[in-house]
Structures are given as C-alpha cells and as structure tokens.
Amino acid sequence: MLAILWIFRRGRPRRLTAGFRHAQAVSAAAMALGHGLQDAQKTMGVIVLALVVGGFHEGFAVPWWVVLLSAGALSAGTAVGGKRIMRTLGRRIIDLDPPRGFAAEVSASALLFVTAFGFAAPISTTQTITASIPGVGTTRRLSAVRWTVAGDIAVAWVLTIPAAAVVAAGAYSLIHQVL
Description:
Shape: globular
Order of helices and strands: HHHHHH
Low-confidence stretches: none
Helix content: over 70%
Distance between the termini: 57 Å
Number of helices: 6
Strand content: under 5%
C-alpha cells in the first residue's frame, strides 16, 4: 500500500479510484484463484483420504468428480456466506477504498501463490486476506482500523479448532452409543 500511495501521489483521486476499481477485478480474480489453490486442495485431500481409508479408491490421485465437488462446495460456500464475510472485511474492520482493497487483494493473493507453488504449503485464504486488510488500513492511520472487530475474528479462529473437537467428540460418542 505504501508503494501504491507513493507511485500515485500526484494522481487525481477520482480518476485513480475509478482505475483501481477496474484493477480490483483482476486482483479479485487472483484471490479467487488463490482460494482454489489453497482451500480446495485441503478439501480434496480430505475426500480422497476418506475414499482410500474406506476402500473406495486406490492411490492418492484425485478423481475428476472430487475436483468438481470441491469447486462446487467452495463456490456454494462463497455464494451463501461470502457477502457477509466481504462486508465484515471491507466495511467493519476498515472502510476500504478501491486502492486499499486492491493492495490487500494483491498482497494476499501473492502470499497464497508463493506458499502454494513455492513451498507447497496450505494456508488459510481467509486469514491471509483478513491480515492484509488491517495492514493496508494502518497506512491511513492506526486508529482507522477497528481493532476490536479484528480481535473478535482472531478469537473466533482460536476457538474454532477446540469447538470442532468438542462437537466431533460428542458426535462420536452419540454414534458409538447408538451402534
């Protein structure tokens, strides 16, 4: 964001905003590709593992229908909950303008690509973009970022795994008693 501010420091704000609004179509597409590279891989891995363990598939090659199922699940999840998440990230943490939105998406998608291709390591798309947004927001000023909203998101991330473990243990216990 600092590089963008410096490069375009003499530009006309209205014209720059319009240009960055168009550039956001490209950066949003990069985020979508990064989302597929990262989160779809994890989903496909779990499905293939379940198929192998259940004896329905040999080897770890991903069947074409698993790819379609994972892409459909990501698309459906984004369609159902995406608007609420985008509103929280784009308006509640900080009111993003097009240049800051572009910078957040470019930096987050670059990190997704580097970790996917360079390190073959899965990282969370949501956590990547959520960390980028306060980063670009601080270029306005530190107090422009609503840190309580960002803190609430971080707490939710920390509590998700233990809560999922408790629910899984309860489901296992219930199924084990019935069977």
